[in-house]
Amino acid sequence: MSFTELNLLPELVRACAALGYTKPTPIQTSAIPIVLSGADMIGCAETGTGKTAAFLLPIIQRLNKTKSFPGIRVLVIAPTRELALQTESAYRDFALKSSPRCAAIIGGASMQRQREALRRGAGVLIATPGRLLDHMERERLDLSRVEVLVLDEADRMLDMGFWPSIRRVLEKLPSARQTLLFSATMSPSIEKIARTTLRDPKLIEISRRGGAAKTVAQFAYPVAAESKTTLLLELLEKEREPFERVLVFTRTRRGAERLSHILSARDHSVNRIHADRTQPQREAALRDFKGGRTRVMVATDIAARGIDVDAISHVINYDVPMAPEDYVHRIGRSGRAGKPGRAITLVTPAEELSMRGIERLTGQSIERVVMPAFGGTHSAAVRPSKAPSFPGRRAANFGTRSFRPRRAR
Ligand code: AMP
Fold it and tell me: Ligand 1 site: residues with CB under 6 angstroms?
């Protein structure tokens, strides 16, 4: 299947080619015809599958079909500023000459500038929920002409407590609209939201619930709690494998700060991204990481959502995430769009239970790499092994199943 066979306009096909997209990803193959048809859709897909283009390309094409008029025609709501900015940048990559202007309405950025962008006339808004409500309340933002609503990473918006805000936004939208909802996982709460917000949606599932990215090889290193930092330094400094671009996850903001300072003191090129950092600081950190000027980025879960950096060679879970779904999101940062990646999780005895929860969710047992010098002898689940070769031997286990679209209830 090619982009042309998906009946996309030649200009859009050319824009894809210019970005190096040679053929559509599975979610693009399934979603583009549905979105073009005007139907509602639930896209159950992990990050890194190409879902942004899967909705932006057909939306741009649909907007091009009808005569342009002032007002907001498309509203994309995303959980984090980073994701919103990335979506805005993707829109600019694909937009046609005739496409409406796009504005990002996100927290931490100048309200005044956003107000001006709205006044100049933005037909496409890409927004985080809090700032969107701010504008709606203060400026009486008119959403009555919205034709397409996209709820991106809806599961995360739910986790972050955004749903009451989104419900208030929904009240202001016309009921005759197309709604597209994307979520990495389909929980009962997401199903309920879909039932109340979407009309007869088509469901496409690109990976099974909790499925890990296909190209990510995963390893767990049992470690004593007091040896975590030394093990991390050992891994990064002894370079058993090429740690080219590394994203390290900590559970807390303070943990991210601490680890980043330790790594910096050891002369690693490192930065951090978490909710206590200002928006310009986050953007600069992301830019340097993307540009290869920083090799290691330390991040918390929420701040890392939407980080779309090519060629992250390794995701290291310094702390095992509490929610197994977060593990799937985290490792989805590496091995994006078919590129190989590796995920390493440092597991203390106290975290072993959470690790088993992850294995249950993903349906995979994650290979343990035991390094006795770091206290890595605990747990009945440990299956000793030698340090893995690159690329990992178990990568073949990672399945991506596609489902034929079926109607959601
Ligand atoms: P997303 O899931 O939208 O965050 O996309 C993940 C990454 O895949 C982004 O860096 C996109 O630029 C890239 N991508 C999206 N579609 C394709 C494609 N058809 N071929 C190659 N890369 C793609």
Answer: 21, 24-25, 28, 47-53, 308, 310, 336-337
> Does this model's pTM top 0.85?
no
Q: Encode 131-186 in three state secondary structure.
A: HHHHHHHHHCCCCCCCCEEEECCHHHHHHCCCHHHHHHHHHCCCCCCEEEEEECCC
How far is residue 329's CA from residue 48's CA, in Å, rounded to a whole number?
A: 9
Fold classification of 4-206 (topology level): Rossmann fold (3.40.50)
Q: Is the dihedral of CA 42, 309, 165, 190 positive or negative?
A: positive
Report the topology of domain 216-378: Rossmann fold (3.40.50)
Specify the DSSP class assigned to residue 71.
Answer: S
Contact 222, 373 (CB under 8 A): no
Query: In terms of C-beta density within 10 A (0-12 exposed, 13-18 middle, 19 or more buried), how is residue 310 classed?
Result: exposed
Element holding 407 (H helix, E strand): strand 406-407
The secondary structure of the chain in percent helix, strand, coil, rounded to multiples of 5, reads 45, 15, 40
Same fold, 4-206 and 216-378: yes
State the Cα torsion 361-365-366-371 to the nearest 10°: 130
Give the pLDDT confidence of 335-361 residue by residue, as tens digits. Answer: 655 567 899 999 999 999 999 998 888
Point out the ligand 1 atom lying closest to the alpha carbon of residue 49: 2
Q: How far is the CA of 45 from the centre of ligand 1 (A)?
A: 13
Q: Which residue has the tokens 């910096």?
A: 264
Q: Which two tokens stand for residue 287?
A: 């830019």
Nearest-Å Rg of the Cα atoms of the chain is 21
DSSP secondary structure string for all residues of 205-263: ESS-TTPPPTTEEEEEEE--GGGHHHHHHHHHHHTSS---SEEEE-SSHHHHHHHHHHH
Distance CA 194, CA 390 (A): 41
Name residues of the chain where pLDDT drops below 50: 208-210, 213, 379-409
Distance CA 256, CA 274 (A): 8
Q: Which of 16, 80, 309, 336 to mutate to test the pocket of ligand 1 (most atoms within 8 A of CB)?
A: 336
CA-CA distance, 259 to 299, in Å (whole number)? 10
